[in-house]
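Worked example 4.2. Below are the chains of a multi-component assembly; read each line carefully before continuing.
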Amino acid sequence: MLIREQVARVVERALEKAQAAGQVPRVAYPEIAIERPSRPDQGDFATSFALKAKRAVGPQGPNPLAIAGAISAQIALDPPPFLATWEVAQPGFLNFTLADEWLRQQIDVVLAEGERFGDVPLGGERSVQVEFVSANPTGPLHFGNGRNAAIGDSLARVLAKAGWRVHREYYFNDAGAQVSNLHHSVWVQYQRLLGKDIPPAETDYPGEYVQDLARAIHAEHGDRFSDVPEERAAEIGSLGSARVMEWIRTELARANVQYDTWFSEASLIREGHFDAILDLLRSRDLVYEREGAVWLRSSTLGDERDRVIIRSDGRPTYLGTDIAYHYDKFFVRSFDRVINVWGADHQGQVPSIKAVVRALGVENDRFDVLVYQLVHLLRNGQPVRMGKRAGNFVTMGEVLDEVGPDAMRWFMASRSSDAMMEFDLDLAKKQSSDNPVYYVQYAHARLAKILREAPVEAALNTDVRLLTQPSELALLRRMLQLPEVVELAARQMAPHHVPHYAYELARATATWYEAGNDDPALRVLTSDERTRAARLKLADAARQVLANALGMIGVSAPEAM
RNA sequence: GCACCCGUAGCUCAGCGGAUAGAGCGCUUGCCUCCGAAGCAAGAGGUCGCAGGUUCGAGUCUUGCCGGGUGCACCA
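Applying the procedure described above to all two chains together yields the following structure tokens:
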């Protein structure tokens, strides 16, 4: 149980006893919320319960100070071992300070739990599917997809740590017009390679990569497709989109993202799932025909208007196949929960997909669309201009080449997904303390180094009571926040809390470590053997927590830099 | 016009209805014969876009306005 919950339990029991003793009235009280106070002198935890209870007890009831005082007095009758002090503060707060002894004992907990330290049982082993990136295989991933990858994969890692069984999935659209356009583009470039003067179509993709694809196909298959007519462009084009899929897989793997499933849109149609869902919707009177197209009655399901799901030419729309896809997620594979990570350029479709899921009869709390705002790329302090039309966009691969996977993931995941962000290429590749990702990795590498210098086996039976320095206790306090951070990030679907926490932990580590620069008695490898052993044990545990935090955002925890 | 997101220090951003709003960069000042200075310590810097409302209490919730972003297809 989270220590914060244990504090809540203490307050709860004290309140019950205060009621039994007639010190506070027996009324329906609000929930006991335990917070982190803003200032250190207010302790480790605080609750404004007594202030919130004011309304519950009414004007005739005790004032907040009296309620807090009664609770405090009851705690004093049977104080829990993990609390050192608890006190009433104006105008009715209760502040709690953890016992140093308890804090020090947690080092053993951290070391015993190892990689699992920070796990919280929020998900209760329920399954969650996280679908992210899912860009069409019509070209290399854009750098903006890097934010999707970082948010989606970090969220998956956070949820796994929060007790969910996580399934990562990439849904690729290999059935729609965009892919047909790519196929046509490849066909044109292939024919041109063979010397035929065929002009590209308006809808063709202009990027140089299309020519790369045509060249690669020619290198492998020679002139074999020279007689393929335009109507059958897909015969050669599909070789191109398959290659693009390979690029995408490779780049995502480089970004430390591994999927459980790559799900093909075309398979839904090919295997008849789309038609089956259509029958289901017809039987529920959720679709109708108009002007030769089939419409979903989405306006009755929370969308602003009805939507076409089958065009008048008989081909399903993207939303149409998405119905079958989400049916598969919820009813075939029966995920308990589904999260889609979408860029802000797709947020207009959120009401439609929500309507679809509602039409299938899925409870609202099983489905979320996490929308993240778009990224601006900065170089030399200037925005990097690009136009997809001209095909000169910056790819995720180029960003990976330039700053590396760790820096890309760190920055892309370190902003709230609600907020538009600037990605500063110069900062991200800077190997100095200006760059937070290096700062945090440096803290880890330092600890790893010192543990190599002086192996910990001597520290196994060490006396952690020798850890009395303020910087040591501050570091411990920070380490022990990890489970709360996991809980917060999971509950809010907000992985950006993790890098912020990792930075704070790295700073506490640096402060602790650097204290020895001014005073040799405070060095980790101090001359007193028993103290040194205790500090090494703390270093070992701190290193573990740093590694766990970095692991949650897919950033490496280097042994040396 | 409508929908969603944002507006917090010079810049980039945190801030789970609570107490005196935080961090990094940048700026100023100290620190390496010493475990990794890719670092540490300290200082200056704020009408939380504006105006109402709810609340014991609002940067946080709500309404309106202003400014910015993204959408508003039988494209995805």
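Take a moment to check your reading of the output against the notes. Chain A has a mean pLDDT of 93. The longest strand of chain A covers residues 165-172.
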